[in-house]
Amino acid sequence: MGNTVKRLAILGSTGSIGQQTLEVVRALPHRFHIVGLAAGKNINLLTKQINEFKPRLVYCQNAKEHLANAEYELLSLEDIARHPQVDTVVIATSGKSGLSPTLAAVKAGKNVALANKESLVMAGEIITNEAKLNAARILPIDSEHSAIWQCLNGETQPAVQLILTASGGPFRHYSPTQLKEVTAKQALKHPTWQMGRKVTKG
């Protein structure tokens, strides 16, 4: 990696993974520089992040008119993802909103730190083909996917089978008997993440 400062754009900067990424940047300011920040609805937190990190590029889905400022440029997610000042794009948005900027980033040959699973579910073959064509790197940063990637990284033989077990959640310490009695309502009450019916029970 060397001593080069990585220029980051974080799409989904007000969410859990976005905030964790900013914690890393705070801890390693000599390694990372924030060029772009993007958020959906949490304008208050985004404003605080803008004041702290001073990005040149900003996107906010629901409050564009409140963010106009001479200190930064308001752009689309796609334009931030492909911007020449950005080396690495962190895609930490939720749902289908991650697809278009992910494609824009790989077509521009960026490093893509991908937490948005939906992009690969919807267009995995297209994204990976574009990444190969444009020498872009896709780095999984969501917990389970990153764990698998790290386990396989450097292996010379392809894996025959991968088994991913549950890594936590509300039923972590349940016995097999207790697990048989779990209801859908209980499954939706995760102690940490409120992800809704589709993501929780997929």
Automatic annotation (TrEMBL):
It catalyses: 2-C-methyl-D-erythritol 4-phosphate + NADP(+) = 1-deoxy-D-xylulose 5-phosphate + NADPH + H(+). It is an enzyme of class 1 (oxidoreductase). One of its GO terms (molecular function) is NADPH binding. InterPro entries: DXP_reductoisomerase, DXP_reductoisomerase_C, DXP_reductoisomerase_N, NAD(P)-bd_dom_sf. Keywords: Isoprene biosynthesis, Manganese, Metal-binding, NADP, Oxidoreductase. GO terms for biological process: isopentenyl diphosphate biosynthetic process, methylerythritol 4-phosphate pathway involved in terpenoid biosynthetic process. Residues 138-200 form the 1-deoxy-D-xylulose 5-phosphate reductoisomerase C-terminal domain. This is 1-deoxy-D-xylulose-5-phosphate reductoisomerase. It comes from marine sediment metagenome.
